[in-house]
UniProtKB/TrEMBL annotation:
Organism of provenance: Atta colombica
GO molecular function: oxoglutarate dehydrogenase (succinyl-transferring) activity; thiamine pyrophosphate binding
E.C. code: 1.2.4.2
Protein name: 2-oxoglutarate dehydrogenase, mitochondrial
Alphabetical UniProt keywords: Oxidoreductase, Thiamine pyrophosphate, Transit peptide
Gene3D superfamilies registered for this protein in UniProt: 3.40.50.12470, 3.40.50.970, Multifunctional 2-oxoglutarate metabolism enzyme, C-terminal domain (3.40.50.11610), TPP helical domain (1.10.287.1150)
Domain Transketolase-like pyrimidine-binding: 640-862
A cellular component annotation (GO) from this entry: oxoglutarate dehydrogenase complex
A GO BP entry: tricarboxylic acid cycle
Lineage: Eukaryota, Metazoa, Ecdysozoa, Arthropoda, Hexapoda
Length: 1012
């Protein structure tokens, strides 16, 4: 007995056919002639009534894998004798192929026309067909305008339709019963059905209000599971109480939009009108997921429908929403944001299952899909903290997309591709598309090349449900199935709610300018509440009295909340926080002292030994052994290099119970082979050692993971991770600092301004390798000037001298206040000790700020770029400015101010020209916030010296434009007295020519070392 036709069996039959076509059954003969595209005139069966009549359907390009897969699916579970019968292969197998055609969602019209030509030809055609394009999923009837007519006709009189398209077929053929193979469950308990009943049931399932995409999934268990959910007779039917619950959600969604339109008719709201079925959809996702163990749902969405979701899903007090429409004062630290960008953090008792669920909507700007990786990172962080990171049972991400953005924004693809990566997975993401069938004013025919806006999700085998938005029952059922799928298979799933947009892009926009025909239909189209209410009234599920009472009750509640909003005089920023840092926020103060960041010498030695000792049972690469030897020598001299300083920061934090997460391209070994935290065995696959694991008993979790080749998505992921867990040192490292260009939206919209707009603190660290080493324009500059330009510190008063400054503030207290008030910290350190203290300070500060570090390349192994144990020992801390201790101030004629790698170039040049007693070199390790007090105190030593800022970047780049004003303010001198030493202006960040590089360097050093 055979359970399934396999490739070996198929090959055996094929070889026999090649030798002698008459040696196989006529059905196999027809099949192979079809597959290998023999023309009808050459076919021995040309006179057969089954002949192929049109060469346009030939399928010679079908792969053997596809043919084999179809046959496997078609005859799974059949006996050998069953498979051999011509009657089965020509009759039942053709019907099975018909079923398969529906499952791949073949166009009903094309299918029936085609079937008239050749019954057997369904084999090849169905593998190509994509008939979800004909499903009746558009409430406006613009897409596939003939689909609704087809469904009505086919359902009412299938025999007539079949006669029209199947010449030669009779009523008897329609009444004839065919066996149902294991690839379908449309018969329920029945093993066979008439062809008429098969077509009726398939039409309803696959060509009605649902366009179902799933047959590209490779896992047969998943295919079977989905078929049972959609093909089983009666599966779609929902109990009356469930449908009443759906009606309530539809009613609230529609009524809320009506209320806003009446009260705030001239305000932008980015309403949900036309896709209100989204509200019961997301509510069902929560209810079903809660039954599967989900306790927290984190939602990311653009502006469309945000207010409705906040009010009806998160149960955000409406008065707080309505105050956002009022011109009243904003209380709290920051500038705030428009109402449809805000988020929330709340607990809700789910209506049907009576379970509590935490619901988070993360605030985000209108950069549409930029929030996607942030949400996924936020969810991953919570899963790791709760020990839920394997399958994501307790915490789930829901991403809500617009149709045009889902297909148009590349970060969607970057985010989706994280779904199965070990250190980035969340056990599946729920994607819900609010499909308006339009992007701003762009027709979907001109906004994407793919058939559907959701096609990108096919790359990870996510099932996709395209659903008619005016069919709330089906929307809800699909949402239920999608939630069950995610919980069962731990993969992404997409719910595409196809509706329309009743207004323009916003409520003030005139859509008739660009879509006149669409909006003529919309104006005459009833809303979903009217459609669904009429349906439920006819079926006796609700009464008119019930509907009227519930609508009045809800509108009355809206009115009461509106009145309360008029009595509120200010908007509280903390009402919109989307992270649960209540205790952490309450303890924050600019007057709290930052503790010393140094550690005891014994811990330093323990860590140095651990990272300098080759792992046991691992065959190390020779380069790793050389690195270990270098570290051992440094350790014996009580010194560390850059990578060792980083390890000291990480492991000391791990020892103290603070997790560390390092993510980015090639971070495990480091772009420049400097880190080597993961040591791979040279002879055994997947055998490796994490050098920072198990150094201390019960140390916290250290995660280091090479990411996908993505900046936008992965950096956004780490933003989300750091937004949730303030106790974890979270780091994203660019392969080169230049590559931060790829995530500029994340940097601009979320990192540098997140606290000002939404009160969101995060301690994310960006490590961006930076420095001119003649490596070309795209491997030199992390664009330090961009980060400094986005710093929000003022340079009107020296800190500590403002009119409202506290009397008696010390330099340390002033710096703490500067750190508390700045939007982020930007540093270009020159020593391993500086890096060590910076990373530890990130966690030990009583508040959180993003930290941008211009990290080195050549300095990673520079013999001068080392630090002593004592610089990181007890009671030591980060020094924002490093003075020149090698000179006698009274002899100095020129003070060179600099930051980063150029310091070592200046040291070498000064020594070669024997100017050690004439030139002082001062390093600014922390550029922003500028260390005014330390700088002023140090510069008092050089009252008559010439002052020059030196940088290797071009004059219009680097730190010069930022520090010049602050140096002048600190010293009380005109800008002209601050000389510039460096490269001239340029549109390119660096040259790619070593000759030009050398000439630039020589000219710069000549200028810098010249004494007047």
């Amino acid at each position: 007995m055979l359970n399934m036709i396999n490739n070996q069996y198929l090959d055996h039959i094929y070889k026999a056919w090649i030798k002698n076509r008459k040696s196989v059954s006529s059905s196999w003969d027809s099949y192979f002639k079809l597959i290998y595209a023999e023309s009808p005139k050459d076919s021995p069966s040309n006179s057969s009534p089954m002949r192929v009549s049109s060469s346009k359907f030939m399928t010679s390009n079908l792969t053997a894998d596809k043919r084999s897969f179809f046959l496997k699916e078609s005859i799974r579970g059949k006996s050998d004798s069953q498979m051999q019968g011509d009657q089965y292969l020509i009759g039942a197998l053709d019907v099975i192929a018909t079923i398969r055609a529906y499952q791949v969602l073949i166009s009903c019209v094309k299918f029936l026309h085609f079937l008239a030509s050749s019954y057997i030809h369904v084999y090849s055609f169905c593998l190509k067909a994509r008939g979800h394009l004909i499903a009746d999923i558009d409430p406006l009837g613009i897409q596939n305008s003939e689909s609704a007519k087809l469904q009505n006709t086919a359902n009412l009189a299938p025999a007539i339709v079949v006669r029209q398209h199947l010449k030669g077929m009779t009523e008897a053929d329609m009444s004839r019963e065919f066996p149902l193979a294991s690839l379908t469950v449309i018969g329920g308990d029945k093993k066979s059905l008439s062809l008429r009943e098969i077509l009726m049931r398939l039409n309803k399932i696959y060509c009605g209000h649902l366009g179902l995409e799933y047959t590209y999934i490779h896992d047969l268990n998943v295919l079977d599971w989905l078929r049972e959910k959609f093909e089983t007779p009666g599966a779609w039917e929902l109990p009356e109480e469930h449908r009443k619950w759906i009606w309530m959600n539809i009613m609230r969604a529609v009524s809320f939009e009506r209320f806003l339109r009446r009260k705030y008719g001239t305000e932008k709201r980015f309403g949900l009108e036309g896709c209100e079925s989204f509200i019961p959809s997301i509510a069902e996702c929560m209810e079903t997921s809660a039954l599967k163990g989900v306790e927290t749902v984190v939602i990311g969405m653009a502006h469309r429908g945000r207010l409705n979701t906040l009010a009806n899903i998160c149960l955000k007090p409406m008065r707080q929403l309505f105050t956002q429409f009022n011109p009243i004062a904003l209380e709290g630290f920051g500038s705030g944001d428009v109402k449809y960008h805000l988020g929330t953090y709340s607990e809700k008792l789910l209506e049907r299952i009576k379970k509590k669920m935490t619901i988070v909507i993360m605030a985000n700007s209108s950069h549409l899909e930029a929030i996607d990786p942030v949400i996924v990172g936020r969810v991953r962080a919570e899963q790791v903290e709760k020990g839920d990171s394997k399958h994501g049972v307790k915490t789930m991400a829901i991403l809500v997309h617009g149709d045009a953005a889902f297909s148009g924004q590349g970060v969607v693809y970057e985010t989706i591709h994280l779904t199965n990566l070990p250190e980035y997975t969340t056990g599946g993401v729920m994607h819900i598309v609010i499909n308006n069938q339009i992007g701003f004013t762009t027709d979907p025919r001109y906004s994407r090349s793919s058939e559907h806006c959701t096609d990108v999700a096919r790359v990870i085998n996510a099932p996709i449900f395209h659903i008619h938005a005016d069919d709330p029952d089906l929307v809800t059922y699909c949402s239920k199935v999608a939630s069950e799928y995610r919980a069962t298979f731990h993969n992404d799933v997409v719910i595409d709610i196809v509706g329309y947009r009743r207004n323009g892009h916003n409520e003030m926009d005139e859509p008739m300018l660009t879509q006149p025909l669409m909006y003529k239909r919309i104006r005459n189209h009833p809303n979903v509440l009217s459609i669904y209410s009429n349906k439920l009234l006819k079926e006796g599920v609700i009464t008119e009295a019930f509907a009227k009472e519930e609508i009045e009750k809800y509108m009355s509640h809206c009115e009461e909340e509106f009145k309360k909003a008029q009595t509120i005089n200010s908007i509280q920023m903390n009402d919109w926080h989307d992270v649960p840092w209540i205790e952490f926020f309450s303890n924050q103060s600019p007057r709290k002292k930052i503790p010393p960041t140094g550690i005891d010498i014994a811990t330093i030695k323990t860590i140095c030994i651990a990272i300098s000792t080759s792992p046991k049972d691992i065959e190390c690469h020779a380069q790793v052994l050389r690195m270990m030897d270098r570290r051992t020598k440094l350790m014996k001299s009580r010194q560390v290099d850059w990578a060792m300083g980083e390890c000291l920061a990480f492991l000391s934090l791990l020892k103290e119970g603070h997790p560390v997460r390092l993510s980015g391209q090639d971070v495990e070994r480091g772009t420049f082979t400097q880190r080597m935290h993961i040591i791979h065995d040279q002879n055994r696959d997947k055998i490796y050692k994490n050098m920072l694991h198990d150094v201390f008993p019960r140390q916290a979790l250290y995660t280091v993971s090479n990411s996908s080749l993505s900046e936008f998505g992965v950096c956004g992921f780490e933003v989300g991770y750091s937004s949730y867990n303030h106790n974890t040192l979270t780091i994203w490292e660019g392969q080169f600092g230049d590559f931060a260009n790829g995530c500029q939206v994340i940097i601009d919209s979320l990192i540098c301004s997140g606290q000002a707009k939404w009160g969101r603190q995060m301690g994310l660290v960006l490590l961006l390798p930076h420095g001119m080493e003649a490596q070309g324009p795209e491997h030199s500059s992390a664009r330090l000037e961009r980060f400094l330009q986005l710093c929000d510190d003022e340079y009107i008063h020296v800190p500590g001298t403002e009119p409202d400054a506290l009397i008696g503030e010390t330099a340390e207290q002033i710096m703490t206040r500067q750190l508390f008030e700045i939007n982020w910290i930007v540093c270009n350190p020159t020593t391993p000790a500086s890096l060590f203290h910076l990373l530890r300070r990130q966690i030990l500060m009583p508040f959180r700020k993003p930290l941008v570090i211009m990290s080195p390349k050549s300095l990673l192994r520079h013999p001068m770029a080392v630090s002593s144990f004592e610089e990181m020992g007890p009671d030591t801390s980060f020094k924002p400015m490093l003075p020149d201790l090698s000179v006698k101030p009274r002899n100095v004629k020129k003070v060179l101010l600099c930051t980063g790698k150029v310091y070592y170039d200046l040291i070498v040049e000064r020594q070669e020209q024997q100017l050690e007693d004439k030139i002082a070199i001062i390093r600014i390790e922390q550029i922003c916030p500028f260390p005014y007090q330390l700088f002023i105190e140090e510069m008092r030593k050089y009252p008559r010296a010439e002052i020059m800022w030196v940088q290797e970047e071009h004059k219009n780049q680097g730190a010069y434009g930022y520090v010049r004003d602050r140096i002048a303010l600190a010293l009380g001198i005109p800008l002209e007295e601050i000389k510039y030493g460096g490269r001239p202006t340029s549109s390119s960040p660096a040259t790619g020519s070593r000759i030009i590089y050398k000439n630039e360097y020589d000219n710069m050093m000549t200028t810098v070392m010249k004494l007047d």
